[in-house]
Amino acid sequence: MYGSSNWVEVTGTTLDIYVENPTLTISGAPNNITLSPTLTGSAFSVYNGTDTHVSTDYRVVKVSDNSTIFESLGNTVNLTSIQATGLEKTTTYKFMVRYNGALYGSSSWTEINGTTLDIYIESPVVTVS
To answer: CA-CA distance, 26 to 114, in Å (whole number)?
Structure first.
């Protein structure tokens, strides 16, 4: 009936500014991880800019069935380290961390695979005479 308008062309350039992926370390990785390890990330940094580190996402996934064992998303208190819980002995896990900035969004997930130790405290045997 009225037809179409002409195309309006807009030219732009995307910003080369982003939240950098943190470096993740876990004591004992890859084969001697305790049942409640501390996940430690590097300092928050932004490529070509500045931003505020508002929160961190942590996740531990059991590799054999891809189930999430531990998760703390949007954590505003533990920005660069957290102690994971609920892990089983001699099990392989994928440990993950991602940083979230106020202006430039989130980094990509950083992942480390590792296996927990077969070491634990045995339950005592009590003998009553």
So the answer is: 9
